[in-house]
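=== Given protein ===
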Amino acid sequence: MNARVRSEERRAEIVGAALEVIAERGYRGASLAAVAERVGLTQQGLLHHFPTKDALLVAVLQERDRWDAVPDSRWRVDLLASLVEYNAMRPAIIQTFSALLGESVTEGHPARAYFTERYARVRESMTEVLRGEYGDRLPNGLTPERTAPLLIAVMDGLQYQWLLDPESVDMPGAFRDFLRLLGERAD
């Protein structure tokens, strides 16, 4: 195995450890030393792969996006329920995403620009998904532009509730109920 492949594997291992540490402690509570210890490196060894904590955060967010990447043309409203079910099988990823999202609303947080841009892209994408499914008006009378932020808010809000009390919140079931409100058959 060549050095480049080993380096890429080590970077992936570090990103995985960073996901775990951020899920447990939040971004501000996570330290490079804790991530380095989890993968058996010194902090200096970790800095060889990621020169700053912010660089590691960006790599974590990019990795999460790669896992969830689906071409916009393949999304349909009924498939969003499958995404919610999939998310229910990966609580650590959802916890990391939620912790970073919550922290990113503070001024100067290194992930603020990432989440601001991500939400703009997701709103645009969901608007197009809704338009493709319903045209210019949903059965409830709202436009796709007005419904997209609500759809995203329900998905993300359910994740927070589910993380706090997974025994009481049926995230996939509640999302299917929301789809019924849109006028979609969710069975």
